[in-house]
Amino acid sequence: MARFEILDDQPSSMATTTHADILFDLGLMYTTGRDCPVDLVAAHKWFNIAAIKGCERASSMRAEVSASMNKADLAKALRQARDWMTVH
Hints:
The chain is built from 4 helices and no strands. By secondary structure, the chain is mostly helical. This is Sel1 repeat family protein.
């Protein structure tokens, strides 16, 4: 899994926005299959986390992806997002 680090010399609101944008980009990567296989569970997870972190575009993309997912995959994505948020 990719790991991104934000330097602490940025104001915290700017760092949060930058971090959310990176998470949004991960969602796009998994949605489109750019440099990885298409994985809607992972895409939903990253869009969900990006939305929680303040990326406004992530909410609409999360809704778009969830329309193509079954209930089991949606539940799996939500669990993975919750687990990630607990650790990070």
